[in-house]
Amino acid sequence: MVLSDHNNRSSPTPRFCNSFANRIFSDVAGDITITINDTSFLLHKFPLVSQSGRIRKMVAETKDTNLSKLDLINFPGGPEAFELAAKFCYGVNFEITPANVAHLHCAAVYLEMTENYRNENLITRTESYLNEIVSQNLEKSIQVLRSCEMILPIADELGIVNKLVEFIAENACKEQLVAGLSRLECGNRVIDEKGRRQEWWIEDLSGLKIDFYQRVISVMVSRGIRQDSVISSIMYYARESLKGIGKSRIWNPARTIPVLETGQRVILETLESLLPMENSSLIPIDFLFGMLRMAIMMDSSLGCRLGIERRIAVRLESVSLDDLLIPSVQTGDSLFDVDTIHRILVQFLQIIEEVEDGDDDDCCGYESEGGVGSTSHSSLLKVGRIVDAYLAEIAPDPYLSFQKFVAMIEVLPDYARVIDDGLYRAVDIYLKAHPTLTEHDCKRLCKFIDCEKLSQEASNHAAQNDRLPAHMAVRVLYFEQLRLRTAITGPSAFSGYMSGAPSAPMSPRDTYASLRRENRDLKLEISRMRVRLSDLEKEQVCMKQGMMDKSRNGKTFLTSISRKFGIFAGPTSGKQHKSRSRKRGYSIS
């Protein structure tokens, strides 16, 4: 008779694995066959029913006294685990190791090998090994946890996974504490040793599946493990699991997205959730951009991408131009992913605003102790220079829309730029690469350029630039005239930008106050110029009227002027003038 613990079914062509039973009971024939996943074991009922509650119940519940076969469905650990459990029932010595203890424990629970049937039964033995041996060793804990990946979900249901995760976190914290105490005792001599100690467990954790790894890191963080250790572990896991995260990718005109292994998106999103947000300055910026590029290629969730972008925004002042040149994966779009950079800039400005609001609450204002400007404003100036370089780099793209280019210019406030040479260069390149722009669009672009912030060289170039609208050249010439007048008459209220050299960075409040003063002085100067212009127009009318009157009397205006000033006095007067000059020259010598 065949009995199954799940349903009645026969195994096709079973493979017998009974060598160890034959060695012990070679003179006694086996009376029951246990089938595990199409592998059969010819065994004896007595050693099994005396220690396994499940087999005892199955044998007792059958009405057939000649039961000869049992089929154990979904046996945890497969035939290998059952063979070890059978050896234990037969009293055969074998070694419990980190590689088999989890499988053996699950098999013992499945077979109900409890203390009710024998003292120190298999469940007790495996639990003792876990609690006394594995719990004290970080390497063995990781090894056992890795073996649990093959026996899910029963290993999780029995609490083995949670127990191992706690073991790993506890031992990692202990090693960190020991390393810290050694550093205090010996100074800097143990730094290398500490680095090597961290390296091995970081490397071992990279072999876990992502769900186990997430649970381990989460418990480590809750236990107070150092964030730099957590970040190092996440970076190592990412480089081992995500193909090409450390490689810079250039734009491919074919827009081909590489074939990614199954689960890569889940790994990336999980690692992003594990990265700290409050201390993101510990994360290398190139690693964050590598994750961002992969998130774009994998079309990861919006929350994942925004989280990475937020961490980049915190350190935007330290990025390079190459970092920002992220290739676009959208067909028919611009060559570079401008939308992503725009979102990063928006988040950066939000962070700046939050910092400044916090400074206001602390009565710190916008000024730093050095009196030059707040740290946030200094960061804003650096980002302004980076953005101008980025604009110049993407401007030649023929697929870059006018709206996106304008949005990238508008995102930064005016006080983010001390000098507009970089912005002028980017606009000029865009106008050159897009000759079909309407006059209205050209004027709109040029309105973003503050002619007062252009250097002497940029002003000279703009005055002769045929691509710029006429009113732009007039504005440049006007401010050049003011700059020249300032250079002649000395410094004035608006000599900051008129001098041609950028002033020191000022906070937004000081900038606004200075601009208000300059605007007031400029309005006054314009009023004076209007009055002067009106006077000149009146003089011109009088001169014209005088010319007409002289012409009626037979005298030209030129003749009257020459007589009045003695400019045109004929050849004789010219000779006399020369002789007087020579005499005057001799007297001097």
Explain what the structure shows.
It is a single chain. The protein is built from 27 helices and five strands. The protein is mainly alpha-helical and 589 residues long. Strands 1-5-3-4-2 form a five-stranded mixed β-sheet. A hairpin with a 2-residue loop joins strand 3 and strand 4. It starts with a strand and ends with a helix. Residues 569-589 are annotated as: Disordered. Residues 512-539 form a coiled coil. Residues 199-483 form the NPH3 domain. It comes from Lactuca virosa. Residues 30-98 form the BTB domain.
Task: Give the DSSP E fraction (strand runs of 2 or more residues).
Answer: under 5%
Structural class: mainly alpha
Radius of gyration: 43 Å
Counted by DSSP, the helix tally is: 27
Instruction: Enumerate the spans where pLDDT stays under 50 for 5 or more consecutive residues.
Output: 6-16, 189-198, 248-257, 363-373, 492-502, 560-589
Biggest pleated-sheet summary: 5 strands, mixed
In angstroms, what separates the terminal alpha carbons?
143 Å
Q: Tell me, what's the shape?
A: rod-shaped
Pathway: Protein modification; protein ubiquitination
Protein name: NPH3 domain-containing protein
Keywords: Coiled coil, Ubl conjugation pathway
Organism: Lactuca virosa
